[in-house]
Amino acid sequence: YYLVMTDDGTGTKIDVALAAGNCKTLGSDLLAMVTDDAVCTGAEVIAVSNTIDIAKVDPKIIGDLMEGLSKACTAQKIVIPAGEIAEVPGAVHSATWSATAIGIVAKNRVIDTKHISPGDTVIALKENGARSNGFSLIRKILSEKFGKIWWKTLRPTPDTPTRTWGDEVLSPSVVYHAAILELIGRYGEKRKINVKGIAHITGGGIPSKFRRVLKRSGHGAVLDHLFTPPEWLTEISAMGKVTTEECYRTWCMGNGMLIVVDAEDAKETISILKKSHVEAQECGTTTEDPAIVVHGYDGSVMHFRAS
């Protein structure tokens, strides 16, 4: 067996949560950042540790953060054996929250991306938020548009007339870890699907994270049926005059994970994911040409060449 470890944090999303007084869903964001990186190797995460660095300890804030993380870990069958809370007013102005995930994978079960071939099917897993990436840009654009307390500005929907911009940007991340394990098997379980590659779409977006998966095989992909990003995110990009290409380099744009499978396994893969309450769809095909071609939500076509 191999031991797999990943580290990450919620970035400046926690600044929005603290300002808006809504920290209860941030645990899903933290867990997603580390477990969904680890599962890309084929690993099952068994434990997560975390560290909160905060200017001043507030028991309610700590309670809300840990309650959210505990719920998220329980759903993923992960334990929290340890953690640390540090009051460091001289080091941070509000707070940072990071985690380390520990997983295991059998040596013969590591996902080896060299087996990706032209004609394989790429499947996108839906994400309704921005996960924990690109929040410095989000905060900048919204503060310039609505002022310093932009998170209180209403963005009503037909179902929720009192919904705010803070509510939108704090949409919790989908944690894909358990759903992926339904495909590749937990410890002692048989593999249901031959998954050839998994990309967790975080910082750098599809051009960066999917490129890592395709690099070893030397192939590319045409992604012409991706999920559309949430409306609130495209509104933000319009406010900040962010180009479509930069959007796909900054955010996941509605596609939190991409997985590569044999074409004949695509329908079964989507069915298994659906049973795990993860919405997925075929979004493209791998190609001999190493370029990643992305058909954007606005009809644009972008070619991201291998560097």
Task: Describe the protein's architecture and organization.
There is one protein chain. With 307 residues, this protein is of the alpha+beta class. It has 2 domains: 2-111, 2-Layer Sandwich (60s Ribosomal Protein L30, Chain: A); 114-304, PurM-like C-terminal domain (Phosphoribosyl-aminoimidazole Synthetase, Chain A, domain 2), CATH 3.90.650.10. The protein has 10 helices and 11 strands. It has helices at 13-20, 26-38, 59-76, 135-146, 165-169, 177-184, 205-215, 231-239, 244-250, 266-275; strands at 2-9, 44-54, 83-87, 95-105, 121-126, 195-200, 220-223, 255-261, 280-287, 292-295, 301-304. The strands form 2 sheets. The protein has a 7-stranded mixed β-sheet. A hairpin with a 5-residue loop joins strand 10 and strand 11 (301-304). Helix 2 (26-38) crosses helix 3 and helix 7 (205-215) crosses helix 9 (244-250). It is globular. The chain starts with a strand and ends with a strand.
The fraction of residues in strands falls at 15-25%
The CATH architecture category of the largest domain equals Alpha-Beta Complex
- Give the fraction of residues assigned to helices: 25-40%
**Principal-axis shape:** globular
How many strands, what sense, and barrel or not for the largest sheet?
7 strands, mixed
Contiguous uncertain segments of 5+ residues: none
The N- to C-terminal Cα distance equals 33 Å
